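Example record

One chain of 412 residues, shown exactly as stored in the release files.
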Amino acid sequence: MSLIRAFAALRPQPDYTAAVVAPPYDVLNTEEACQRVDGRPWSFLHISRPEIDLPPGTDPYCAAVYEKAAENLQNMRNNSILRQDEQAYYYLYELIMGEHRQTGLVAVASVSDYDSNRIRKHEFTRPDKEDDRVRQIDSLNAQTGPVLLTYRQDAGIQSLIDRITAATPLVNVTADDGIVHRLWLVSAQSDIEKITETFDAMPNLYIADGHHRSAAASRVAAKRRTSNPNHSGEEAYNYFLVVMFPDTRMKILDYNRVIKDLNGLSQDEFLRQIAENFSVTQVDGQYKPTQRGTFGMYLDGNWYQLAINPDKVSNEDPVAALDVSLLSDNLISPILGISDPRRDKRIDFVGGIRGLKGLEKRVNSGEMAVAFALYPTSIEELMAVANAGQVMPPKSTWFEPKLADGLVSHLL
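Predicted structure tokens for this chain:
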């Protein structure tokens, strides 16, 4: 089995692409999804968030929801809104957000290489979220949400990408949020073979986003392998849908923290305790960190620059060296008393796409007492953690721009 392979994607027909593509299922709640589909009967949200087509208050994890997703997918295929390509291709997928542009490869990746950790992970998964994705894949008999992977840039692959994307794209749509999505076919057999061979020679790929989707694909494959007496390893379920971008082109934004209270401390005592592990400087206006080891803090209408004391930083452990760990281990846990950010309701997380004003809004409203702005985790840090077989703290990375749902799907 190859690490990746070409596949015959299920895609929107050209006249319907703009009507179909939708944000990823997990960036919208049910109410927001309902608003997005108003007047859009072919939006992929009818498949990724099918509870919007059921009575209000329907449990999004009940059997009827997964059945509705399968019904909606079949309806879009019956109406030729979605069609499967007649042969296997690789696809090139470009995202444009403002001045940022990144182009990656759409493929299916080997579940066995995921299971053996050749496709490396850096996050824990939650069983309930895995279960949801397993039921969704099983019900649709398809993978509709691509896993975001990264790899060490390869000059030959980049040259091939540049050559093919010099032509007019097959798809060129601008989504509601202003992100441009473009798609090209890689149809020449020589190019397909070069891509397959080049990636087969790579030691590792890395999951950037999509740990629950990849874990669910592994579980579905294991179940189908067990129940298939003629299993050969070449079945579609042995692979999962991915979009892979070179490490040099990925864009990671900061993933910031807001806390509900000061753990019973006065503001003066809070600042005094912080000063034991950080240098603390009040600044005029907003403060956005410009390097590792520095943090912005918004408290009572004022911004502060925090710089971790050098003796608190150790580069021997790739997880402990992360800024998210330094803030947690030296402030959020010992001072604010939040030791389990996965479950503690006093902490919330704000993606950097919302900017510093998003932090100020949460604090100024009285909902939160203090906010922290972080320097973005780097791809190098992500790879170091994955290579060490460790996991990052929750909410360590926020990738932008987001991949669209519905542009390509993988039928099982």
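Notes: The longest strand covers residues 100-110.
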